From TrEMBL:
Name recorded for this polypeptide: Two-component system response regulator
InterPro entries hit by this protein: CheY-like_superfamily, Sig_transdc_resp-reg_receiver
SMART domains recorded: REC
Lineage: Bacteria, Bacillati, Cyanobacteriota, Cyanophyceae, Oscillatoriophycideae
Residue ranges of domain Response regulatory in the record: 3-123
Tree of life domain: Bacteria
SUPFAM superfamilies with a match to the protein in the record: CheY-like (SSF52172)
Organism of derivation: Floridaenema fluviatile BLCC-F154
Amino acid sequence: MTTILIIEDNYSSSLEFGTNIAKILDVDGFNITLISNIAVGLDLAVNLKFDLIIFELNFYSLHREDLLKRIKSSLHNLQKPSLLITANYEFEAISLIKELGITNYLIAPFTKHDLLAVVTDCFLTI
């Protein structure tokens, strides 16, 4: 079974967005792990086997250089496909996504079809 780790950086202490993504992917047959802490999620990504890592990040409040470096380093070492979901469509956020080495991204709002298409594409680009 394909395993997906969803790492959500949610400052409202709610996992609603990540939970909705997990439900869509779970119904489609993926095995999902959802984490609401980037540091813990990256540790899991390094120590357990996942086929895809999905980040749900809020770039408006994510300006912690050390955390961004850790994401980039972890993704480089893992050599796994990754997907970033964000509501921030500003040039700086898109530029940062590419700088982090994230292979695919999706800008919210999006449909279930959009999500499944991008996830499928992540596995095709391996």
